[in-house]
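Quarterly update from the structural biology core.
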Amino acid sequence: MPIVTIEWYEGRSAEQKAEIARRLTDLLVEVGKTQPEQVWIRFNDSDKGDWAIGGELQG
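Predicted structure, tokenized:
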């Protein structure tokens, strides 16, 4: 069972997430030869202030 985790800044709409989920699922079904119900996708939305890159907070 493929499990996909997407870590990104918050701010995407439910419609955007739904489209990404559909497209990733289609890709994994086609290329990975799995079933749609076996594809799990989790979106981790974080505030920019929760991320530091190169020692600098992004928020």
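The two ends are 35 Å apart (CA to CA).
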